[in-house]
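Entry 12.
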Amino acid sequence: MIAAIGAFDGFHAGHRILLEETGKLARQNNTEWAVVTFSPHPDVYFDKNVKLLFSDYEKSAEANFLKIPEVIKLPFEQICNMRPEDFLEMLAKEYSVSGIVVGKDFRFGRNASGDGFLIRSFCIDKALLCSIIETLKYQDGPENGNKVSACVLREWLRDGRINDLRNALKFPCPLSGIVVHGEGRGVKIGFPTINILTSAEKMLPAEGVYVVSVLTDIGWRAGALFVGVPSMFEDVKETRVEVHISGFCGDLYGRRVTVFLEEFVRPPMIFSDESRLARDIELCVEKAARVFNANHSLNDELYRELRNAFSDSHTLRQRVSQRQSIH
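Predicted 3D structure (tokens):
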């Protein structure tokens, strides 16, 4: 098996190069390949306040979307305290690893003392395949010259830079969660919404209104997403994730829904009364329909593949194996 190793908070454009190289080596050597990653994510392990770009469910679905054969999750608490050489020996022995692919800046093991040079030396010594991938850097914009990284992508999500995020991921960023009961205020003003409870590990986008594509059991629907604390209602103090789904009347309570961020519309606003709020929602819903239709018309195949990947929960469970301990 050829192993692509990394922390992987989702798979951005830089990771795609690494995955392509791993798949190519596997095909050339008539063997299987897999992603080897860690749980919890190292950034979360060292700082419990860190929020991730992708929840566990979203990462599994993205792996399905990218046709990654298997994702092996190893317990990071043990990995970070292992000698780097012992970690590599464990991979070769327990997973029959015949090749390793990592990014040039990958660090691992006790005190992050393992690096690409050590991996290459180990692979030469054990007659394993090895490929160290050069770091992908941004070619323009304010990040020009900096490496493509999950940290930058998280900043973009936090700032509402949805187009930049889409370009780096190669598809619209997902936001997944379970539909829970709200107060029903949207129904009263003519725009019912679903309330989504997201994973505690998931970073939310900047507060405001977004055009989203909503994946339902009956296919795609245009949606207007609000993230933030509703200013009209003084009794609501916590951040809400609410979506109005155009033309949808079904019951989604207790079920998982995934929305994909298409475009940032506006930051939060204060309205003097509910009629003005309703008018603004109407305009946002109209814009959502226009953007949704344009994006799906131009990228029909992409959305068909996303629907397959994020709908097939049975396949997702099969693709991910999680090791609770390492011996």
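Annotation: The CA atoms of residues 215 and 263 lie 16 Å apart. DSSP finds twelve helices and twelve strands in the chain.
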